[in-house]
Amino acid sequence: MAIRKYMPGVEVRLWARRKSPLTFAQEHKLADTCSQSLFETVGGAELVVLCTPTSTFLNLAKEFEQGLGEKAIVTDVGSTKKDVHAGVGSFLEKSGHVFIGSHPMAGSEKQGIEHARVDLFKNAVVTLTNENRADDDTLSRIAHFWHDLGASVFTTNAVDHDSLVAAISHVPHIFAALAARAAASDKSPNVDDLRKLASTGFRDTTRVCSGSPELWTDILTQNAEAICPYLEQSVADQQRVLQLLREKRREELLQWLREAKQARDSIC
């Protein structure tokens, strides 16, 4: 949708394994070609964007690699990068093709093509990773692609990317899930009463964990190495605040909350 608005004249082909999203795309004229044939969709394309769960990237690349043109660039929108580069990136590099990792920090917990928005990338940040050693001109072409869709670009390495998104995306997703599970636990009153009182605070805090459990299982599993140190630190912090609450140590609790506010304000 964004390509058709901001890059008129560019041919867009859409592939999906299931027919229903392709039917929706055809009805809403989201692409020039909608196909369940991966080889047909990729053949002759200048840019291939992988938008499936990251665990499927390598098998898809093995299916379409023979159809890639000599100058084709492959990128993705996955939330992890170390495993992606080690898998599909290395495979394509060895096959003589170019892969550059992309991660748009954009989206929502809503699933399905029917929730797509043309302005999704407007003012978003897209991280680029280049572990498979594409040349500077190719990297610049990918950067310009995202700029044309309204995003700004941040370039880093895969390990740092995975640590950064663990801190500001993956661990918060786990915390959102913990908050939702705590509210609906056997320690809580009945769900009907919870629903009457749940307002913006609870909805905002837990919103992200309404996303696809299957997708997030992939993300969290692949980035476990980066996530676990943050969680271990948080467990110690939770034990600390639990003790402060049990002992009603008001001044220390106040300081703990001040530190949390300062941390949040320094990031946002």
Give a structural overview.
The chain contains twelve helices and eight strands. It has 268 residues and is mainly alpha-helical. It has two domains: 2-156, Rossmann fold (3-Layer(aba) Sandwich); 161-267, 6-phosphogluconate dehydrogenase C-terminal like domain (6-phosphogluconate dehydrogenase C-terminal fold). The chain has a three-stranded parallel beta sheet with strand order 3-4-5. Strands 6-7-8 form a three-stranded mixed beta sheet. Helix 4 runs parallel beside helix 5 and helix 7 packs across helix 11. The radius of gyration is 21 Å and the shape is globular.
Features:
single chain, 268 residues, mainly alpha, Rossmann fold, 6-phosphogluconate dehydrogenase C-terminal fold, 2 domains, three-stranded parallel sheet, three-stranded mixed sheet, 12 helices, 8 strands, globular
Compact description:
By secondary structure, this protein is mainly alpha-helical. It is built from twelve helices and eight strands.
